[in-house]
Amino acid sequence: MAEKILLVDDQPKNIQVAGTLLAANGYEVEFATDGFKALEWLSEGGFDLVLLDVMMPGMDGFETCKRLKKLPGGMDIPVIFLTAKTDTDSLVEGFESGGIDYLTKPFQAEELMVRVRTHLEMKQLRAKLKDTNKWLQSEVDLKTVQLQDRNLELQNALSKLQTLDSSKNNFLKIISHEIRTPLNGIIGATFLLRQMADTADKKEFFDMFEISIKRLENFSFSALQITELQANTGQVPRQQIGMNELFNEAKNISLIEQHRMFSLESADLNKMLFVNKALFVTALVKLFDNSIRYSPQDSRITVRVSEQAGGIRFMVMDEGPGFSDEVLLRKFELFVTGETHIDKNPGLSLPLVKFIIEAHGGKIDLYNNPSGGAVVDLTIPGV
Amino acid sequence: MVYPVNIKSEDLKLLGELLTREANPLVEIALKKQSIQAARQLLAMVTPLVQKYQWEPFTHWVGSVQVAVDSFDITMMDKELREFKPLLENVMNIVSKIEKS
């Protein structure tokens, strides 16, 4: 379909020249000999471009253009002024009234056609852009609604998870308390009964009994510590304490019969740390217990301490088989156990260490040493 | 009044009816709206009638409108469109006289 152009000029000769030219180039042309008639045409709609004479009796081209721009869809119709007035004020007035371009009379046929073609192409591009923007806006609106729905679902899911997490914490706290009270009675009674064991068989039974009690006590302690650390989101109270003292205390209260060589590697063995002593010793004990469990007898467990830009780094390294893929994949998740050590690992040790380190504002990672053995790598902020 | 030379009276009557019924509204629109496109529509309607009826005053009028439209001569177009009414009256008068005689 041919593009439609309105030619407005009070001189029939001018209309004849431009009209013939435009029609010969395939455009559908209508004409008006004054501004009022032009606005009548334009209010019917359907025009793609207006060629508008400036000096006309009655209503001049500038006024006609201003009124055209107020018509529905008028802003989208490009107006090219045909004018003999080339002074700056006239040109500015033309652009201010809404004109997009101007041609000085008498115009060259080639120039007229080039400008007409250019502005028609620009109009088409603007229309396409408008359509694209409209489509994009509708897509954005749709996606926004979908996101809002998804967000609501996530909020509901989060709320359920928080409820479940809170229930789990309460449950762990309750069972820890409920286990610890009778456990203390059992530990005392066992100690007394052990004194009365008079045969090797009986002593062996008491040994097994004590191991089970220790595991239960260990579980109860860890569960209680985790729930307390989870509930307490602020940092724990800290004090200055020597590194060597911490290391020896942890080594001495490690729960398992050791038969391992412990070594502390540090440039300054008496370096003072700023930590919560009870919690940090607990973390070291848990790491030592894990290393002892999984490494062969008489192997070495090394704690390497160094100062880093981010704080003080501890690497606890053993000579065991290393962490299983399952543990490395689901690091620090509660109750995750290594496949091959499921009977040995209570599943709360590493998560508890993580909670303790994070309560100190530190970070922790697990990996296997390429030359063998597991590495627990943690950093806590300096003083 | 131009009398028909080589057109039958019944054909002239038929032409008169066609011009009244179909061409007249298009002429009125073209004049009222000063519309080149309406004039083109009028030409599209009347040009086939030129061949069919071959009445010289009609043929001449159609040719003049065609020249005005093609050359975008709006003054001539307006003038020629205004000639349509006298032309139609001429046709109707002739038909009326023939019927009476």
Give a written overview of the molecule.
Chain A has 383 residues and is α/β, with parallel strands linked by helices. Chain A has 3 domains: 4-107, Response regulator (Rossmann fold, 3-Layer(aba) Sandwich), CATH 3.40.50; 155-231, Helix Hairpins (Orthogonal Bundle); 239-380, Histidine kinase-like ATPase, C-terminal domain (Heat Shock Protein 90). Helix content of chain A is 54%, strand content 17%. Chain A is built from 10 helices and 12 strands. Chain A has helices at residues 12-24, 35-44, 61-70, 88-96, 109-196, 200-231, 243-253, 277-294, 325-329, 349-359; strands at residues 4-8, 28-32, 49-53, 79-83, 101-104, 239-242, 261-266, 272-275, 300-308, 311-317, 363-368, 374-380. The longest helix of chain A has 88 residues, at 109-196. Chain A is rod-shaped and about 135 Å long. By secondary structure, chain B is an all-alpha fold. In chain B, α1 runs antiparallel to α2 (36-53), α1 (9-33) runs antiparallel to α5 (84-100) and α3 packs antiparallel against α4 (74-82). Chain B has one domain (9-94). The model of chain B has no long low-confidence stretch (mean pLDDT 90). Chains A and B meet through α1 and β2 of A and loops of B.
